[in-house]
Every structure is written in structure tokens, then in C-alpha cells.
Specification:
By secondary structure, the chain is an alpha+beta fold. It has four helices and four strands. A two-stranded parallel sheet has the order 1-2. A two-stranded antiparallel ribbon has the order 3-4.
């Protein structure tokens, strides 16, 4: 379980942390539960995603599918 691993880090270190998370998951086959406000980076390394608002899951699905949804792009990815 990783809770906000990018919080307060410079962008260079955020990328490094997410590379390490992805490497651990892929090479060691270690499942990771990631809680992260940086949806862009989280969805890049995740297999599945869950979007919570006010303590409720409002969206869920494969990470790539969530990242492609217009409402996710506008509300969480700044696109």
C-alpha cells in the first residue's frame, strides 16, 4: 500500500518514484495498492483505477480506459 508517494516531490523525483513502482510490480510480480492524487502518473503505471469523490467510488475500470474517458481527462488529468 502506497499512500501519496509523490506528495511534495519535485517532478524529476515523481517520475523516478513511479518508475520504481512500475519496476517492482512488473519484475517482482508484487501487487501494489496506490492511493495518489496525481492521476496522470498513477494511471500510467496502474492496471486498474478507481476514482473516489467524497469517500465513494464514482468511476472504475482498466487504467487505459479511464485515462481515455473525457470526464476523467477534464476533471483529473487537466486535458
Amino acid at each position: 500500500l502506497l499512500d501519496e508517494p509523490s506528495l511534495g516531490l519535485a517532478p524529476l523525483y515523481v517520475r523516478l518514484i513511479f518508475q520504481i513502482i512500475q519496476k517492482i510490480n512488473e519484475e517482482q510480480k508484487t501487487p501494489i495498492l496506490l492511493v495518489e492524487q496525481n492521476a496522470h502518473m498513477a494511471l500510467k503505471v496502474a492496471h486498474r483505477g478507481y476514482v473516489m469523490e467524497n469517500g465513494r467510488i464514482v468511476l472504475e475500470g482498466k487504467a487505459a480506459e479511464l485515462a481515455a474517458r473525457e470526464e476523467v481527462k477534464k476533471a483529473y488529468l487537466g486535458i
